[in-house]
């Protein structure tokens, strides 16, 4: 898909497009691109991101992504307001985020949901696909849980990148 969000992100970061990226490489790429998107659209990205592929869904867990304004509102006890804003924002971002995930995975996203948890500070993104994950992704998720906890994590240094202007606004 020429001119897609995926191509723009890759082209702007001088990283090669790798057809058929699978397993731990795919999970790490998903985490990296989600972190970049969060930084671009929220103004702050998570301090850690990790992706898990299970059956017909993808779960992305992001920690430490609250904005200064959100932290201030939480200090005022406005949890419902912060949650409502996040949900409204994610609802508007659905097409961009599901399109990015579809391009990265090569699978159709049937449903998407985002949820913020305040304690501990976690955002969970869930994407449900038209078919189950392949053995490399499921194996990489299992290996990341059992042998190498870095599998599926965001690429090193992405949280410090300046992504302003790297992702087009439609």
Summarize the structure.
With 170 residues, this protein is an alpha+beta fold. It contains 5 helices and 4 strands, in the order H-H-E-E-H-H-E-E-H. It has a 4-stranded antiparallel beta sheet with strand order 1-2-4-3.
Q: Would you mind describing this structure in some detail?
A:
By secondary structure, the protein is of the alpha+beta class. The chain has one domain. It contains 5 helices and 4 strands, in the order H-H-E-E-H-H-E-E-H. It has helices spanning 5-12, 23-42, 68-75, 79-105, 135-146, and strands spanning 48-54, 57-63, 109-117, 122-129. It has a 4-stranded antiparallel beta sheet. The chain is globular and about 45 Å long. The chain starts with a helix and ends in a 24-residue tail after the last helix. The model is unreliable at 1-20 (pLDDT under 50).
Distance between the termini: 16 Å
How many structural domains are formed by the residues? Answer: 1
Structural class: alpha+beta
* Tally of separate helices: 5
Q: How many distinct beta strands? A: 4
The geometry reads as: globular
Strand count, sense and barrel status of the largest sheet are:
4 strands, antiparallel
Helix content: 40-55%
Sheet with the most strands: spatial strand order: 1-2-4-3
User: What would the average pLDDT be, to the nearest integer?
Assistant: 81
- SSE string: HHEEHHEEH
